[in-house]
């Protein structure tokens, strides 16, 4: 179904409006349409997804995201089209530093339907993992990535970075890591949390992690600590993982018409404050041949 959806600006906007409405969120045309228009030529080839989070911080907003070819620099487009202001912060040079250091397969962007342009995703070529040793050589990288290099090395994740996420709105950076299978076992999950000073997960979180395929960590430029650790699961039935998500989000999961037969993504996160929350992603337009899918849907690394 998702392959036949309307990917014109008008059609995409209509789908955003209807999907956000399932959560009682009103999409702002003044916010959304300029983002879609800025990347209009790339929409016909894009993987497109909608995402909702269960925590209070994200309440009242609804995110959409789509992929872009490597020939399109999303940061330069965002600046030139007035989607964001150039930040006076190291995050403003992170993408260009990555472009000079690393081979890049493709990009993605993320925007809120009320808050506007948020993130850029950088996908490295399939099978060509980046290493934290190389990435931490960049002057624009958060110091906490290098500060925790021993942690990543100890758990076998330091040499297998698939994706970097750059969040310009919150001024954070995500490192998406291919982890050995034991990193999803309860004993190791608990040890990792203790090692980086995060609270112990709940039993629901342990059960979730047992089915996860990937891990990502969140870093900022103001602290040497890992701000958050998150785990990803692929499923066609997100509700199977939860006793309750809240009335609005349950309604969204059960009612969103797009990607009915396509995989859904669920991410579980634990913050430094001990908050556990979940992000659910449904695909408006799924494409099985995509670097995004290769990065997110890959089987666990057993090595």
TrEMBL record:
Record-level Gene Ontology MF annotations: prenyltransferase activity
Alphabetized UniProt keyword annotations: Prenyltransferase, Transferase
Keyword Glycosyltransferase: no
InterPro entries in UniProt: ABBA (IPR033964), Prenyltransferase_CloQ (IPR020965), PrenylTrfase-like_sf (IPR036239)
Pfam families given in the database record: PTase_Orf2
Family: Belongs to the aromatic prenyltransferase family.
The protein, known as: Prenyltransferase
Organism: Streptomyces cupreus
